[in-house]
């Protein structure tokens, strides 16, 4: 009897484990920032350790731009094959940080064309823009012609803004690797994210990218990752903790431009979420018809950096959130029930 019971429990555990596994079929389009240290295979290894499966192909010629990819037979062949769950797009490392008029002419139109081609062949594919990082000491080769590129901070902020704009224009998600690097540079300066050229990633730099991509592609916490790969254990732990805070805790923020028909978990009660006044000065009132199964809901307000600035928990259908101290700008309100994002909306704060 005990043996039968034990076998039954093992069978149930195996079924639960199988059901928990997720497979993602992903196409990576970019250049050396992806093929350095074999980033896709790193993501695959980390996913396997969490019980998930990554199947991937890649087209990543060195220095390749979005415009180049549109005439690249390998890239277009992969796109036209279709059947992708996600397609990752990474532009040449410097181009998005160039003067805005140049980016408008040499980057944005080709990003749009790639997205159109992807959606023609894979209508349900989630497009993810790979937000890259500023060079360690800025872009010395272009500093004289465009001073914002003279420092890491200037270049990094431009890359963040331009990738965000591309995601918004094309209703795509963001993999905010550059934001993770920014936090690591500030909070863990002892971690060397760059290789010797000050541009390409070191092993730990690629590890940070891999953990970020695992979290974005599978929408799971990086806390399940225990594999440090070739990275120092302390550095790997710092990376995972940073990704948990910057990426996983703000998943809805990084998916905020995606059409509701492509979102995995928002929109369940989207039409029943009402926020007013909006624009707001010192407070917002939130009303949402909640199914009984929801129980308590968390209402979390995020700023443009993905940082949670306000949080309220309620079991009722009406909530008032205090906005005092919030700087004027656009925020994202996320409603979480039973561990799932069930609604999101934008909130504009004008201040007094």
Outline the structure in words:
- A hairpin with a 5-residue loop joins strand 8 and strand 9.
- Helix content is 38%, strand content 21%.
- The N terminus is likely disordered.
- The protein folds into two domains: 235 residues, 3-Layer(aba) Sandwich (Rossmann fold); 80 residues, Immunoglobulin-like.
- It has a five-stranded parallel sheet with strand order 2-1-3-4-5, with helices on both faces.
- It is α/β, with parallel strands linked by helices.
- It is built from twelve helices and twelve strands.
Detail the topology: elements first, then pairings.
Blueprint: H1 2-20, E1 23-29, H2 32-35, H3 39-49, E2 53-59, H4 66-70, H5 73-81, E3 86-89, H6 100-106, H7 108-121, E4 126-130, H8 152-169, E5 173-175, H9 177-187, H10 203-218, H11 233-246, H12 251-254, E6 273-276, E7 283-288, E8 297-302, E9 308-314, E10 318-322, E11 329-337, E12 340-349
Parallel strand pairs: 1-2, 1-3, 3-4, 4-5
Antiparallel strand pairs: 6-7, 7-10, 8-9, 8-11, 11-12
Helix pairs in contact: 3-10, 5-7, 9-11, 10-11
Measured by DSSP, the beta-strand proportion falls in 15-25%
- Distance between the ends: 72 Å
CATH architecture identity of the largest domain: 3-Layer(aba) Sandwich
- Count the strands? 12
Helix and strand succession?
A: HEHHEHHEHHEHEHHHHEEEEEEE
Arithmetic mean of pLDDT: 87
Note the overall shape: globular
**CATH homologous superfamily grouping of the largest domain:** SGNH hydrolase
Please summarize the sheet with the most strands.
5 strands, parallel
Q: Give the uncertain stretches in residue-range form.
A: 1-20, 260-271
SS content category: alpha/beta
